[in-house]
Amino acid sequence: MGIAFPEGSVSVTTAGGETVILRICDLCGAAVVEADTTDLAFHKRWHRATGSGNWVDPATGRLHGPGNPFVPGGSSS
Fold first, then answer.
1. Rounded to an integer, what distance in angstroms lies between the CA atom of residue 67 and that of residue 46?
2. Taking a C-beta distance cutoff of 8 angstroms, is the pair 72, 14 a contact?
3. How are strands ordered across the β-sheet holding 9-13?
4. How far is CA 16 from CA 10, 12, 13, 20, 53, in A?
5. Tens of pLDDT along 66-77?
6. pTM above the 0.85 mark?
7. CA-wise closest residue to 57 among 29, 22, 25
8. Suppose 22 and one of 31, 48, 49, 71 were both cysteines; which one would form an S-S bond, judging by CB atoms 3.0 to 4.6 Å apart?
């Protein structure tokens, strides 16, 4: 049983009534806040800069990211 991350964006309303937009990273599943100082593109540049485009879920052992041969566009190398 794997984890299916939502695609696109998710909005959350805070207790103070403000709406926060979260963008879901398709590489790691992180919810990235859409704000003036950060965004999903910045988060993905971090993946490229650190070489962390692929990660292994410690609970399932499943490889996430473009290196997973079982996802569209994935490769075994």
1. 17
2. no
3. 9-13, 19-24, 31-33
4. 18, 11, 8, 11, 35
5. 666 565 554 554
6. no
7. 29
8. 31
